[in-house]
Amino acid sequence: MKRRIGLLVTLAAVLALGGGLLAATPAWATPPKHFHQLPFNFSFRDDPLSAACGFDVFDVIAANIDVTLLYDQSGTLIREIDTFPTTTFSFAAPSTGKSIGSRSPAAGHADYTGGGAVGTPAIVSVTGLQVMLAPGVMFTGRQVFDAVVVDHTPEGIPITMFTSLISQSGNFFSGDIAPLVCAALSGP
What we know:
By secondary structure, the protein is an alpha+beta fold. It contains 3 helices and 9 strands; from the N terminus they run αβαββββββββα.
């Protein structure tokens, strides 16, 4: 009889605890949003290199990016994870028809404190190969930046602008790349 009462008390306690847990509504976060193979093709005139070379030099970035946006329990954007497995970064001179650059497989992480709203701060880290111009002349490793959200893509993905370098580790060439880039881009 004691065993049966003990079993009933245990069963009642389990049901009471389990019933309470089953009745509680879970506080799940908003599901992540995934964007696959977003095309990113961007070029801009590199003023310092153009001045050093004596002809127009452009930075050219081409990629298909996978983006994941992560939200907290209230639906506020808190983090972004980007992967760039097929990115290329190069310097190009339209006047000579030459370019120099490399593949730039990397991953980026952004932590948003203001939900990714325009004008709010972010911390952005980039890990991977950014560019290799020649053996020993590369920018690879991890860099962490202060950033600010300046706009959004049509999909609602924040666009950030780096404001300062917080830290870096890896192999980041510290010399002047201008002579190498200018020589590679100059005429025949």
